[in-house]
Fold this protein.
Amino acid sequence: MKLIEIVSTNVRYFRKSAGLTQEALAAKSYLSSDYLSRLERGEENISIVSLEKIAKALKVDSFRLLIPDVHKKIVHISNKPTSNGK
């Protein structure tokens, strides 16, 4: 799967999970709804700046928008040491 397809799928997944329309996400991310529509269809490239804006608006870490099949995976990132100190 191409990265643009991964990003478009994940943006759509997290947007719908948050109960947002494209218009609502556009307002929260300061991007146009037309841009988000093209992005979700895989017709638009995304910059790192736009990726960060969308992630912030969706309240997810930016890297989650880059993980293939993220909706099928549980990804936990923690800075806390494990019980054995590692």
User: Anything to note?
Assistant: Residues 3-17 form the longest helix (15 residues). The mean pLDDT is 89. The helical segments are 3-17, 22-29, 33-40, 48-58.
